[in-house]
Amino acid sequence: MATMKAKFTQKKRVKLAQGLWLMNWFSVLAGIVLFGLGIFLKIELRKRSEVMDDNESHAVPNSLILMGALACGLNAFAGKICYDSLDPSKFAKWKPMLKPYMAVCILFNVFIFFTAGLCFVMRGSLETTLAHGLKNGMRYYKDTDIPGRCFMKKTIDLLQIEFKCCGNNGFKDWFEIQWVSNRYLDFSSKDVKDRIKSNVDGKYLLDGVPFSCCNPSSPRPCIQHQLTNNSAHYSYEYQTEELNLWNRGCREALLHYYTSMMSSVGVLVLFIWILEMTVMVGLRYLHTSLANISNPEDPECESEGWLLEKSLKETFKSTLEKVKGFGKFNQVEAGEGEEDGKAPTVATVS
């Protein structure tokens, strides 16, 4: 017994075809939007590639680009089918292609739903990527004379200014690394010698941060050196000076920026998935209602359309049997190939 059966008159079939034609072209526009969003997101991720440890985060924009291109092609093809369905002679040439096309549409909609889910679950991967990438970027901050790393100081400074952040998790991260190049240290100075000797790794560590950590909203000139020494500055207590430096870490700032962007994209992808599912269901009804016209010479007669030719249970069972049959067919072919490859036996004469 067919699932979700409905009756269609000539007028209803025409309205369905016209509505689907319009929805398919809306879907083409949506595909163009998704393609553009994928390009935009990829560019945004590449802007911060120096502070990202790997390229796993590019799975989302790559999926959006591919999905946008497929949406344009598939929906333009479906729009042509819906337009030609109004003319029986033109629609006849599309009939053999409709079943394979519906199978492709099912896979495409699964892919859309998976991409939407991927937009919402990328937070964990992004957080790890940013944590390692920012840590390495801060280590290379001082290497302004080393090829391949000389740009890192500018990158980190612009990042901290743009996103109003400091360090990886906070400004104290700068206390744990040497961010001043040896080129600008006076090794004859007693203070420099003492700081280097006091560190096991022989690094010049200090309780200071780069200028890009300074908050321009601070009412006093920025204090970026000897931050933990209250006596070094007049009327100063570093634990209560909230406006002096940015308190938020850059990992948190970038994570919020990218996750909010991907969440917005994910919501849009879900809406497009609903649109694509609606188009696919409508196309299935149009296909079955046109195929079930009892008298082809009388196109105005009523016909029945359905979503599934059998019940859901029977459809699942038959699909499973087809998959099993296909697997057995491959095994038989493999067995025949092995038999053909056997070496011929040679009879011995006693």
Summarize the structure.
With 350 residues, the protein is an all-alpha fold. It has helices at 10-47, 59-84, 88-91, 95-121, 123-139, 152-163, 190-197, 250-291, 312-340; strands at 6-8, 303-305.
What this model shows, in words?
This protein is an all-alpha fold and 350 residues long. It contains nine helices and two strands, in the order βααααααααβα. A two-stranded antiparallel ribbon has the order 1-2. Helix 1 runs antiparallel to helix 8, helix 2 packs antiparallel against helix 4 and helix 4 packs antiparallel against helix 8. The longest helix is centred in the last third of the chain and has 42 residues. The protein is rod-shaped, with a radius of gyration of 33 Å.
Strand order of the largest sheet: 1-2
Q: Which H/E pattern describes the elements?
A: EHHHHHHHHEH
Question: How many β-strand stretches?
Answer: 2
In DSSP terms (H or I, runs of 4 or more residues), the helix count works out at 9
What is the CA-based Rg, rounded? 33 Å
Which sheet architecture does the biggest sheet show? 2 strands, antiparallel
Draw up the topology in text.
Layout: E1 6-8, H1 10-47, H2 59-84, H3 88-91, H4 95-121, H5 123-139, H6 152-163, H7 190-197, H8 250-291, E2 303-305, H9 312-340
Antiparallel strand pairs: 1-2
Helix pairs in contact: 1-2, 1-8, 2-4, 4-8, 5-8
